[in-house]
Structures are given as structure tokens and as C-alpha cells.
Specification:
Length: 657
């Protein structure tokens, strides 16, 4: 290489490089021979060839495409490779430098390529958000325009009422004026009649005087007597005239009673109309103010919802795609469709957890004992390792059904946890009872969506009273019996009208919408006719895993809702916080207020459950020691939640009566 590569610059050809020399160091800058370059030096030929090659390659490139920068880098890469190949001494160093840059460039390309989908996704999300905002603004514009139209209609109605009020006032004024004119006309007519009567009487008297003067023989032969009689008559006439004048003076302004009553009635009617219009005007004005307040609150809610929407869009995660689970759950898409039917996201999470937990439970061969502490349920008190029997869900449900049958047939009732363990001992023997207790307990704790398992677990852990399950079964039995009685032909069929009648007679305190919910759960739909037939036995069936049909599930949901509403009403009537103490008389009074039909026995059972006292130790109403029995309101409500609490009568009917 030294033969065809001339040294450049030329003044460095005769210099030697020290052993410890570092480029760009301070010693390097201090050397005088390296600080100044002689003028007039020329580039080496090899350098000129590389620069010409680079210049030609750059001219041949098409820099109008998206990959122009990458193409522009290629000639530089080739020139650098030529340079490395010719300088063998520095080839390893230069190759490592080139490789480092190539690795960094490749890393940056991968990073850019990974960010491209995110950029497209951001654009898509931005477009969707813009569309939603525009849709919300369009809805708000429509709502605002509707409110404005309603406001204009109300303003027009107010103007119309004001015009009617003004016209009625003018009519009242006109009637009063007409009444005054009629009154003056009647006065004038009365005075004219009185004057006419007086003139007629005067003419009559004159005629009588002339007739008496012309024929005195008519009154007899004594003219003195006739003169005295005439004098007395005139005196009577004068007295009557004075009385008449007195009557005129006293009753000159008096109108006839009939006219007065008619005018008074007319005036009263007009006054009532005026008062009614005033009340209507006040109501319309109040409604207008309420609408204005509602409009302002709607605007505030809109702004608040918009802010919440923006916050949710900023922080929320996308909704899960539950269809992905169909390929993972055992049984494939068909079984997942059955499991997911009619369930929300929260319930689907429970189903998925049960499926996952079932697999984990089957992989587990042994359970560790929980020990003998007081917090451990009696049927689980064991120290050691017990075997997992690995039964199927159907086997567990069948075993729990047999336990319920034996429990209901039992005469002397023992505590439910003790009964459960004794039942397992009778079924599997004392040696296997503890293993089956742990196995069934873990299955019940896992499958909380299963009705039989969840109810048995709640009663076993004393979260719910045994009477709740028994009463529910009695209700279903009573309802089936009523339907059977109505089915006179014993065909197992009822019309929708008959089903509604049976539900109303069995549940007299349920409202119409609750009856409608039960009808819909039983198969009624808006297109159904009252004469459509229904197989009522299908309303009470259960599958092999203990799941009831929607009708029985709706009955259970309504019972829980009614109990929660009952206890909320009790808490609201007491007016206390959960951490406040409440006395027995207050709870007794509140229960009798919200449920006046409560009999004494049921009331005492509720109080016994709330205060955890035997019924025999409850004091009678009015005794002094009642005030000494207190508990926290939260504790009382929790204890009542465990028991079977039902409304004994309709409070609305009691208040109405």
C-alpha cells in the first residue's frame, strides 16, 4: 500500500510517531511541527478517487422516496469499507467502529418499526374520541334546542294566561259598570212609580170627594158623621204618607234581595275564576323556575359527565374480549356459551375463576389441616394432612341434597356444623369423614355461583339462618300446590291469566311490577296472550348441578331485594349511624312502624335475633329494663340480615286505612 499511497500532508512524511502518542491529546497539540500546515499541499490521489466515487454515487441516487436517507447512507458505507480494506493495520479498529454504528442503526430501525403500530393505534383512538365528542355535542345541541323550545312554549303559555287574566279583569270592570247603571235605572224607575202612585191616589181622592159632594145620600143622612170620617181618613193618609216617606228615607238605597243574591253569586264566580287564574299563574311560574334550575343542573351534570368521560378515556382500560375464553375453557365454545349466557362482566370473572379453580383443585392431592383454634369451624378442626377425594360437581350437589333431606327429616335439631360432620361420618365412616369435609368445603368455597353450594356454605358458616332455606322451599312448595289446585284438568298446564292470579294470591304484598318480573321469568313476553298455555312444572326444575330455572332464581332475587329494602327502611326510620348504639324499645317501635301487621311472636323472634337474646329473656314492652338492652346498630342489622326477615303486611295499605 505504501508504494501507491502518497503521504499527505507532505510535511508529515519525515516525522516519527512517539510510542505513547494519543490523538488529540495535550502533548499532541504542543508539538510545533503538528500545529501549522504548510501552504500549497495537495490531496492524495486515493482520497480524490474516493471522493469522486462518493460524489458520483450520490448523484445517481433517487432522493424523492421515503427511504432516501437509508439509500444515501449506502455510498458512505461502501467508501468506508474500501478505506478499511486498504488500511490493513487499522482494519480491526475501523471494522469495530463500523459494526458498532451498524448495530445502533439496526436497533433504531427496530425501535421505529415497533412504534409504527402504536402510532396508527393512537391515530385511531384519537379519531374515535373525536367522533364520540362530536356525537355528544350533537346530542347536547339537540337537548338544548328541545329545552329552548319547551321554554318558549312555557313563555307563550304564561303570556296567554296573562292575556286571559287582563280580559277577565276588563270583563269584571264592565260588569260592575253595568251593575251600577242598572242600579241607577231601577232607582229612577222606583221613584217614578212612587210619584205615579201618589198622583193616582190624589186623583182617586179628588174623585171620591166630588162624588160625595154631589150625592150625599149615599152615606146616610148625617153629613157630620161623614165629615168626621173623611177627616179621620185624611189623618190616616197623612200618617201613612209620613211612614212611607220614612221608609223611603231608610230604604232608598236598598236593592231587592233576589237581585242582590244574583249579583253576589256572579261576583263570587268571577272572584273564584280570578283566584284560579292566579293559582295557575303561580304554578306556571314555579314550573318555569324549576325548569330553569333543572336546565342549569343539567348543564352542570353535562359538564361533569364530559369531564368524567375525558378522565375515563384517559385512564380506563379496554373491555375484555370474553370470546377468547371459549378456546381455553373445557368443553369448547358450546360450553362457554352456556356458562356466559345472561351474565355481566363481574359474573363472567367469577365463572372464569371457578373454571381455573376447578382445574387447580383437581391437581391438588392433599389438604393441610387448619388446626384446633376457635376461629376454625368445628367440622374442619384437624391437624395434619387429609386426602382430596376429587369428586365432580354433580357428586357434591347430590351429596348436599341428601344432607338436606336428612336434615329436614331430623326430629331433634343439633347445630348445623355438627350435623354436617355427623352426616359425613354416617355416610363415609369416621376415618374418611374429615377428608370429605375438607373436600366438600373447598368445592363449596370455590363454586359460589352454584345455588345449592352457595346456600349450604352460607348456612354452614353462619352467614345465613337455616330457616331462610327452609322458608324458601316451603314457599316454592306452596306455590306449586296453588298451581296444581288451579289446574282442574291435571294436565300440568296453566294460562298466563291463571298464572298471574296464582302469583297475586300467593304473594299479596308484591307490587305489580314484581309480579310482571316473575311472569317474564316464567316465559311471558309482550306478544303473549292471556290464553297461552304454560307447563308450570318446568318452572321448578333443577339441573344435575343444582342450578334452578330463571323463575325460581327471580323469586330468590326478589326475596333478597325485599329484605335489603326492609332493613334500609328500618335504619332510615331509626335515624342513627351504623356505629351508634340502639336500644330494644327503639327497634321494637321502628319494626311496628314499618310493618304494623307484625304479630307478637314474630316481633319477639326478630328482636331476639337482633340483640342475640333468647326469646324467654326478652322483657315485655314498657318494662324499665328494656332501656338497659343496647347494641350497635350495625351489629343488629347484620344479625337481622342472617335471619329470615319478611314483611307481614303492606305498609301502604295500613297508611291508607
Amino acid at each position: 500500500m505504501g508504494s501507491h499511497l502518497p503521504p499527505w500532508p507532505t510535511y508529515t512524511s519525515g516525522q516519527t510517531i512517539p510510542h505513547n502518542w494519543k490523538p488529540c491529546s495535550d502533548d499532541y497539540r504542543k508539538q510545533a511541527g503538528w500545529q501549522q500546515q504548510p501552504q500549497g499541499t495537495t490531496k492524495p490521489r486515493y482520497l480524490e478517487q474516493l471522493e469522486d466515487y462518493l460524489h458520483k454515487e450520490l448523484l445517481l441516487l433517487d432522493l424523492g422516496t421515503d427511504s432516501a436517507q437509508e439509500l444515501r447512507l449506502q455510498p458512505y458505507r461502501e467508501v468506508f469499507e474500501f478505506f478499511i480494506e486498504d488500511f490493513k493495520t487499522y482494519k480491526p479498529l475501523l471494522s469495530s467502529i463500523k459494526n458498532a454504528y451498524e448495530v445502533m442503526l439496526a436497533h433504531q430501525k427496530e425501535k421505529i418499526r415497533a412504534l409504527e403500530p402504536l402510532k396508527a393505534k393512537l391515530v385511531t383512538v384519537n379519531d374515535e374520541c373525536d367522533k364520540r365528542i362530536l356525537a355528544m355535542r350533537a346530542e347536547e345541541k339537540t337537548e338544548i334546542s328541545m329545552l329552548k323550545k319547551e321554554k318558549m312554549n312555557l313563555l307563550k303559555l304564561i303570556d296567554k294566561k296573562n292575556e286571559e287574566k287582563i280580559s277577565l279583569q276588563s270583563e269584571v270592570t264592565k260588569l260592575r259598570k253595568n251593575l251600577a247603571e242598572e242600579y241607577l235605572r231601577y232607582l229612577s224607575e222606583r221613584d217614578a212609580r212612587k210619584i205615579l202612585i201618589a198622583d193616582l191616589n190624589e186623583l182617586w181622592y179628588q174623585r171620591e170627594d166630588r162624588s160625595l159632594a154631589q150625592s150625599p145620600g149615599i152615606w146616610g143622612e148625617d153629613p157630620v158623621k161623614l165629615t168626621v170620617a173623611l177627616k179621620m181618613t185624611r189623618q190616616d193618609l197623612t200618617r201613612m204618607q209620613m211612614e212611607l216617606n220614612t221608609m223611603k228615607a231608610n230604604f232608598g238605597d236598598v236593592v231587592p234581595r233576589r237581585d242582590f243574591e244574583m249579583q253576589e253569586k256572579t261576583n263570587k264566580d268571577l272572584q273564584e275564576q280570578l283566584d284560579s287564574l292566579r293559582d295557575d299563574y303561580k304554578e306556571v311560574r314555579k314550573e318555569h323556575e324549576i325548569l330553569l334550575q333543572l336546565h342549569m343542573s343539567t348543564l352542570k351534570e353535562r359538564d361533569q359527565f364530559y369531564s368524567e368521560l375525558q378522565e375515563i378515556q384517559r385512564t380506563s382500560t379496554p373491555r375484555p374480549n370474553w370470546t377468547k375464553c371459549k378456546d381455553v375453557v373445557a368443553g369448547g365454545p358450546d360450553r362457554w356459551q352456556i356458562l356466559a349466557e345472561g351474565k355481566n362482566s363481574d359474573q363472567l370473572v367469577d365463572v372464569l375463576l371457578e373454571e381455573i379453580g376447578e382445574g387447580l383443585l383437581r391437581e391438588k392431592d392433599f389438604f393441610s389441616g387448619l388446626g384446633y383454634e376457635e376461629s376454625v369451624p368445628p367440622f374442619l378442626r384437624f391437624d395434619g394432612v387429609v386426602e382430596n377425594k376429587k369428586p365432580t360437581k354433580k357428586d357434591v350437589v347430590k351429596l348436599l341434597r341428601d344432607a338436606w333431606k336428612e336434615r329436614l327429616a331430623e326430629e331433634q335439631k343439633e347445630k348445623f356444623p355438627d350435623f354436617f360432620f355427623h352426616f359425613l361420618e354416617r355416610r363415609f365412616g369416621p376415618a374418611e369423614a374429615m377428608a370429605w369435609a375438607y373436600t366438600i368445603f373447598e368445592n363449596m368455597k370455590l363454586f359460589r355461583s352454584n345455588e345449592i353450594m352457595s346456600q349450604f356454605y352460607a348456612i354452614l358458616m353462619e352467614e345465613r339462618s337455616e330457616s331462610v332455606y327452609i322458608k324458601q322451599k316451603e314457599t316454592i312448595t306452596e306455590l306449586l300446590k296453588e298451581m296444581t289446585n288451579v289446574d282442574s284438568q291435571n294436565k300440568g298446564l296453566l294460562t298466563m291469566d291463571q298464572l298471574r292470579t296464582v302469583l297475586k294470591s300467593t304473594f299479596p304484598f308484591k307490587k305489580e311490577e314484581k309480579i310482571q318480573e316473575l311472569m317474564e321469568a316464567g316465559g311471558w313476553h309482550p306478544n303473549s296472550s292471556n290464553t297461552d298455555l304454560l307447563n308450570y312444572h318446568l318452572l321448578f326444575t333443577e339441573d344435575e348441578e343444582g342450578q334452578s330455572v330463571p323463575f325460581v332464581q327471580k323469586l330468590w332475587e326478589q326475596y333478597l331485594d325485599e329484605k335489603d329494602k326492609y332493613l334500609k327502611e328500618l335504619k332510615q326510620l331509626l335515624g342513627l349511624e351504623l356505629r351508634d348504639e340502639v336500644t330494644l324499645p327503639k327497634v321494637r317501635e321502628a319494626l311496628m312502624t314499618i310493618d304494623p301487621k307484625l304479630d307478637k311472636q314474630t316481633l319477639n323472634s326478630y328482636l331476639s335475633q337482633a340483640f342475640q337474646l333468647p326469646v324467654t329473656k326478652l322483657p315485655e314492652a314498657g318494662e324499665h329494663k328494656e332501656e338497659d338492652i343496647v347494641t350497635l346498630l350495625q351489629t343488629a342489622l347484620q344479625q337481622l340480615q342472617v335471619a329470615d326477615i319478611r314483611r307481614m303486611g303492606s305498609r301502604e295499605q295500613e297508611l291508607a286505612s
